[in-house]
Amino acid sequence: MTDLGGFSMHELFRAEVETHCAALSDGLLGLEGAPEDLGIIVPLMRAAHSVKGAARIVGIDAAVTVAHHMEDVLVHMQKGQERATRGRIDQLLEGTDFLLRISKVAEHEIPEWSAVHAGEVNAITTALAAPPPAPAAAATVPPAPSPVEASVPSESTPPTSSPPVPVARQESPRRVDAVVQRPMPAAEPAPQPAPAAAAPEARSVRVNADNLDRMMQLAGESMVEGRRSPALRRALAAVRTELVRARESLEGALRRGDPQRIAAARDAVARAEAALGERIFELEGFFRRTEEVSTALYHEVIGSRMRPFREGVAGFPRMVRDVSRQLGKDVALEIVGSDVPVDRDILARLEAPLNHIVRNAVDHGIEGPDERLARGKPAQARVVLEARHHAGQLQVRVVDDGRGIDPEGIRRKVVERGMQPAELAARLGERELYDFLFLPGFSTAKQVTEISGRGVGLDVVHQMVTSTAGTVRVESRPGAGTAFVLQLPLTLSVLRAALVEVAGEPYAFPLARIERVLRAGADAITASQGRLQCDVDGRAVGLVDGAALFGFGDTARGAATSVVVLGDEAGMVGLVVSRFLGEQDLVVRTLDPRLGKVPHIAAAAILDNGSPALIVDVDDTLASLRKQLGEGTFAGISVTAASAAPVRASKRILVAEDSITVREVERQLLLRMGYDVAVAVDGMDAWNQLRAGRFDMLVTDIDMPRMNGIELVRTVRADPRFAHLPIAVVSYKDREEDRRAGLEAGANAYLTKGSFRDQSFASAVTELVGAP
User: 563 exposed, middle or buried (CB, 10 Å; 0-12, 13-18, 19+)?
Assistant: First the structure.
């Protein structure tokens, strides 16, 4: 398969399918819970459509066929032609699993793998093409089908490829109506390489493209700065030589007592001194710039390691659904903090422990529907998986509303297994008893199932947590539920902070959580309803003395007051400090757990001068400030920073496409033609970029989130600035009504994505926008 831009399109396809399959899995689970909510179906249709398009680009016909049938079923649901039954959801999930599996197959193994799994493709597509399965007999929760069971096979009806359609053009030389559809040639078996010693597979990770661009830029700047050092060394060496000569000349002149030579020597010393001053100035600039670049590069590297928490738990909703159905239970999983950034290594190591905890909760922690109803609980149980940053650490909580853990049951098991004598076990507290759950093989379950046993596998949790210098604890109330709380370090966590002094002690505030720092004169601070306040952008902000908050007692106000303005969605509050000390990058150090929760403090750090500083817990501090002020909320402020895109004189084309695979194909084709290319991930992104910059042409897909291609074209044409902007629609939809809709909206050309394989796309672009 062809590489574009030095990387494999198959890798792009794999990454895109992973993203869309995660969306399909989550969306189908949501649709199962709310079958009447047709709004859920549109993103699912778009995901299946994008997978089909990407698979067609890389020539994986089996994936094209499965995704096509899935899209057909979703279209029928959207039109009300069938309901989203559980049986149909099972089939769609089976198709999703197949797409994910085929995306992970090595590129050269695709033809053979597809041939081996042709029967599976036939079973999936036949089931999807047939009417939806009849609902099962009334039951609390029907059992899930075994993963190895396939739908009843029948004759496959894969979509047929349309014959080539000739290009049709309007008379106008600036308007192109083209519908090009050519059947994808069957993928030929890739030539097998000669047997050789297996090379270790290179470890690869996904890095945000913006992160990578900034790192490359900073690495280039670092290299340029490094090349300055030889010149600086030579300049300093020359100054040193000049100083040595001037000193020798001066010493000789002083010995001879020659006034003229003494004056000349003094002039030479003065020149050398001036040259040395210039070199020192250059050296200081060199060191300063080197520090800036290295620090920025360090932060980009740290940022590239962070991934959102949702990436590590993407498969959990599906797992909970399948396990609960297998057990005849009804369990809903709620994920909180899905966008919390987590170090990628921590995230990878979290998956197995969290899997154990969640499966244990569903199997042994959650009661059956009848038992829950008898206890006055809702039939549907709830498991909450939450991630957040707290006190300089990553905190992950798994909470269920099940039967809880019986501490007396643990106590009996401890005595039965001879782990503690009865008299000592009787004195153990709940926290000490819960620690036994993390021992290998320890379980209080009456029977061990193939899914889990409360305590089985929890030793894996303990090993992972201790290996990362973290902690895990259990909180439980019999009959009310159980919570597992994991405290893990933020690996190489670095914080940009504003330093202040309060009562002679340094404190650090996370820079991202500060709304403003200001110096308020005595006349700017007023009293209102028993509290002090100052004006910030026309808003009254309440003030609290930082010394009193941190336990140092009240301090007298001088002629001017230093204020740190903190805020969140609820508003702003001011904290009075002694003085500002500047900004620093701090390595976060967690507090000794023996200290417990220190009020208003999240963590600690060591400053550049070696002295310690405490890092303020902004959320805790805000809560205390509002409590002391004795009022509700303040109106927040909104800072809008507009940045205009640079204007370029060369021909610039904007590509709007939500499929990363197709988007990269279009970008590479246009770059090879010599155009400058910008990309947008959907119609709204494209519209924002069009208004902010200057473009000579727009290339857009039809099916995109937020704003589809038709809406984008109409929006663009409604703006007089873009009345003559050439627009080409590139879509897999090749029906006459689709082509007509695109052209009527205002597009100059309508092409199918099969045009990438011939000159139709290139010819249309050149005709519309001209040569690069």
Answer: buried
Domain tally, the chain: 5
End-to-end CA distance of the chain: 28
**Which residues fall within 8 angstroms of residue 385, CB to CB, at 6 or more apart?**
313, 316, 333, 334, 335, 336, 354, 358, 396, 397, 398
474 and 348 both lie in a single domain? yes
- The number of residues making up the chain comes to 772
Do 625 and 525 sit in the same domain of this protein? yes
Cα(151)–Cα(149) distance, integer angstroms: 7
- Tokens read off for 576: 């009075």
Q: Is residue 179 part of a domain?
A: no
Q: 715 and 736, same structural domain?
A: yes
3-class DSSP string for 229-281: HHHHHHHHHHHHHHHHHHHHHHHHHHHHCCHHHHHHHHHHHHHHHHHHHHHHH
In a 3-state reduction of DSSP, which class is residue 195? Answer: coil
User: Using one digit for the tens of pLDDT, what is the confidence trace for 422-462?
Assistant: 888 888 888 788 888 877 666 665 554 544 444 446 777 87
User: DSSP letters along 311-325, please?
Assistant: GGSTTHHHHHHHHHH
3 state SS of 754: helix
Whether 248 and 331 share a structural domain: no
Helix axes 41-58, 660-673, angle to 10 degrees: 50
pLDDT digits (tens, 9 = 90+) for 545-582: 888 888 887 665 555 688 998 876 557 888 989 889 88
Listed residues 629, 663, 694: the one ending a domain: 629
Rg from Cα positions in the chain: 34
Task: Name the residue among 69, 74, 76, 87 with its Cα closest to residue 23.
Answer: 74
pTM (global) more than 0.70:
no
- The whole-angstrom separation of Cα 704 and Cα 685 is 11
619 shares its domain with 664: no
Residues 583 and 666 in one domain: no
Q: Residue 728 is which amino acid?
A: A
Parent domain of 466: 313-445+452-489
Same domain flag for 302 and 318: no
pLDDT (tens digit per residue) in 686-737: 888 888 788 999 999 888 877 888 889 999 998 888 888 999 988 877 777 8
Report the alpha-carbon distance of residue 291 to residue 660 in Å, rounded.
Answer: 36
